[in-house]
Amino acid sequence: MKLILPFPPLDNHYYTVSGGRKRLSKKSRVYIKEVMYTVRPDYTMTERVIMSITPHHSARYHYDIGNCIKCIGDILEKIKAYENDSQVDKIIICRGVVEKNNGYVDIELTEVDGDKFDPEYLESLKEK
Q1: Residue 73 — φ and ψ, nearest 5°?
Q2: Strand pairing of 88-93 and 48-56?
Q3: What is the pLDDT of residues 104-118, one digit of tens each?
Q4: CA torsion 16→20→22→26, rounded to 10°?
Q5: C-alpha span between 123 and 52 (Å, rounded)
């Protein structure tokens, strides 16, 4: 399954602390609503999942590409791309080209039959 999402808030801005409680920031809540209204997966994955992420930031500055994984995992669960983000067994992430003023994230989800997800299969993925 291939999906394109708007560029998410980075982990540093995903949560906020208010009154001693940790909760989603306003920016994150707006992002989640936007994605839930615009992105519809074809079906919900029920088996183990391999996720490939290519973030295309909207500005040319240094950022940690790993800082978007939590938000992406959560939103894919919310839009029902898979049942639970604990199904993800492997994440591949590669920095994409800068898309000035129009950042987005390419996501490819591959469902793997649970019976075939064994140590030998995992080793074969490392070679790719």
Answers
A1: -60, -45
A2: parallel
A3: 999 999 998 765 556
A4: -40
A5: 17
Shortest CA distance to 5 belongs to which of 49, 51, 54? 54
Are 45 and 59 within 8 A, CB to CB?
Answer: no
Question: Is residue 18 predicted with pLDDT exceeding 60?
Answer: yes
CA distance 31 to 77: 14
Which tokens belong to 25? 């920031």
pLDDT digits (tens, 9 = 90+) for 32-43: 899 988 998 889
Which of 3.10.330.10, 1.20.920.10, 3.30.1330.70, 3.40.50.2000 would CATH assign to domain 2-126?
A: 3.30.1330.70
Q: What is the pTM of this model?
A: 0.78
